[in-house]
């Protein structure tokens, strides 16, 4: 009995949150960031592929202007279900397994999309692909966030998320080269093979979240191994026990999104995500078609449309420091600028140079803003419900991403002018700016007690 008491007394308790927060970012965290960025790279490629091939699909199948709107939206509905479902499951079984499973799922879905012979089958296959695409995103964000020190968390999550924008932008450039030579199905061949080749590598090298393992308990050996990689110079005794400054939360994880004064923040975050993703997917899906209607070739429309994602990459790297420093204040300003840039697309459509610049600026703000919102959401919620919080925010946002292409398709089918289309598209960005401004005041009290 005395020996057991001595052993307990000698146990060293190491606070994972405190240890990570006081240390600089190291090579292990950068390596995990790059692995998660690779997942989002192929996720972004496969998510945006349908927008780039849309003009070629419409020409081959002789579809009416705007007829592919339901195809865009049903794929995004799959992303919504995947984000909510797999985000919640990951808070129970861990991030890594869901990331690997999701990558395999959307790789298979992309390959199957090559077999589509009409719009109905294309809708079914894009929905199934969307389930996998939706599951990968909240969990790569959560995993990166949980390995990052608090003062650099937004910057690191945004850097990781740049993989999505780079993949989406490359999709446009690759589509411009592949479609004339091999047809639109070749884009989905690439989009299926790459994630299926990546998945075994993820199984071997991707770690589980160190905060998640410490929170669920009983995995001290695994936590010690990960912490030695995060902090190789730290002295970690063999009998160490690990903890985080958070409690395990019983019951349904989603219920805790509305507990402990989180209700208003959760609803405002959902508003930002809904409006932001409505705009993003309206632009991402319809820009190549609109540009093609204005007289540019399918290949040129794909390249110019890809400037939206190129701008998003630039915004992601440029805005991280300001988000870490000014939080929701910076987010509100970004969305205000996004509204101006989106409206400018319609006003400059007479000039290739000007419209390309406006599309780049819109991507810088709307995609940069969305990735900043991802980072701030991951920072706000505690570990026990971080994937759930991310999954539901992205899931609600996906409702907006479903509505966006439908609105764009309806306006194009009604022969709305290009200037009118983009003036209307600027309104959701203004609403997102207002919600982000409200978060400056509402998130402050609760944000101090969570987000660790």
Descriptive overview:
- There is one protein chain.
- The two termini are 37 Å apart.
- The chain has 17 helices and two strands.
- The protein has a two-stranded parallel sheet.
- Residues 1-9 and 445-452 have low confidence and may be disordered.
- With 452 residues, it is mostly helical.
- Helix 11 runs antiparallel to helix 12.
- The protein has a single domain, classed as Up-down Bundle (Growth Hormone, Chain: A).
- The longest helix is centred in the N-terminal third of the chain and has 35 residues, at 27-61.
Structural class call reads: mainly alpha
Task: Compute the number of structural domains.
Answer: 1
Strand order of the largest sheet: 1-2
Order of helices and strands: HEHHHHHHHHHEHHHHHHH
CATH superfamily: MFS general substrate transporter like domains
Level-1 CATH class name: Mainly Alpha
Number of helices: 17
Task: List strands and helices in order, with pairings.
Blueprint: H1 2-10, E1 13-15, H2 16-22, H3 27-61, H4 69-93, H5 95-113, H6 119-146, H7 153-182, H8 185-205, H9 210-216, H10 220-230, E2 241-243, H11 263-293, H12 298-305, H13 307-326, H14 328-347, H15 352-380, H16 386-413, H17 418-447
Parallel strand pairs: 1-2
Helix pairs in contact: 3-6, 3-7, 3-8, 3-11, 3-12, 4-5, 4-6, 4-16, 5-6, 5-8, 6-7, 6-16, 7-12, 7-13, 7-15, 9-10, 11-12, 11-15, 11-16, 11-17, 13-14, 13-15, 14-15, 14-17, 15-16
Short description:
With 452 residues, the chain is mainly alpha-helical. It contains 17 helices and two strands.
């Amino acid at each position: 009995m005395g020996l057991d008491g001595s052993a307990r007394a000698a146990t060293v308790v190491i606070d994972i949150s405190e240890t990570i927060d006081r240390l600089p970012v190291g090579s292990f965290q950068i390596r995990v960031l790059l692995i998660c960025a690779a997942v989002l790279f192929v996720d972004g490629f496969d998510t945006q592929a349908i927008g780039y091939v849309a003009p070629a699909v419409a020409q081959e199948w002789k579809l009416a202007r705007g007829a592919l709107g339901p195809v865009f939206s049903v794929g995004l509905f799959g992303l919504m279900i995947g984000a909510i479902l797999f985000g919640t499951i990951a808070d129970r079984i861990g991030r890594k397994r869901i990331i690997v499973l999701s990558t395999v799922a959307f790789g298979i879905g992309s390959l199957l999309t090559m077999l589509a012979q009409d719009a109905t089958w294309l809708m079914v296959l894009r929905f199934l692909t969307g389930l996998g695409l939706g599951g990968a995103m909240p969990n790569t964000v959560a995993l990166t966030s949980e390995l990052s020190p608090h003062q650099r968390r937004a910057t690191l999550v945004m850097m990781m998320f740049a993989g999505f924008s780079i993949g989406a932008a490359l999709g446009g450039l690759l589509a411009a080269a592949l479609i004339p030579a091999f047809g639109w199905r070749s884009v989905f061949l690439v989009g299926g093979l790459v994630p299926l080749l990546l998945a075994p590598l993820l199984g071997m090298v991707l770690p589980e979240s160190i905060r998640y393992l410490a929170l669920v308990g009983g995995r001290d050996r695994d936590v010690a191994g990960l912490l030695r990689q995060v902090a190789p110079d730290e002295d970690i005794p063999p009998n160490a026990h690990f903890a985080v400054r958070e409690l395990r939360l019983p019951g349904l994880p989603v219920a805790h999104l509305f507990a402990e004064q989180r209700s208003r923040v959760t609803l405002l975050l959902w508003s930002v995500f809904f409006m932001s993703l409505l705009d993003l997917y309206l632009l991402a899906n319809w820009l190549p078609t609109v540009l093609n209607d204005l007289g540019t070739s399918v290949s040129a429309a794909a390249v110019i449309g890809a400037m939206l994602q190129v701008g998003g990459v630039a915004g992601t790297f440029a805005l991280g420091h300001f988000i870490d420093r000014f939080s929701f204040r910076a987010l509100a300003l970004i969305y205000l600028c996004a509204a101006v840039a989106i409206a400018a697309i319609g006003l400059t459509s007479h000039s290739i140079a000007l419209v390309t610049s406006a599309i780049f600026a819109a991507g810088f703000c709307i995609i940069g803003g969305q990735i900043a919102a991802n980072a701030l959401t991951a920072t706000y919620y505690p570990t026990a419900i971080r994937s759930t919080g991310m999954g539901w925010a992205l899931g609600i946002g996906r409702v907006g991403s479903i509505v966006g292409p439908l609105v764009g398709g309806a306006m194009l089918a009604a022969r709305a002018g290009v200037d009118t289309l983009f003036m209307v598209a600027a309104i959701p960005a203004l609403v997102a700016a207002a919600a982000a401004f409200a978060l400056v005041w509402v998130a402050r009290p609760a944000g101090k007690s969570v987000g660790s």
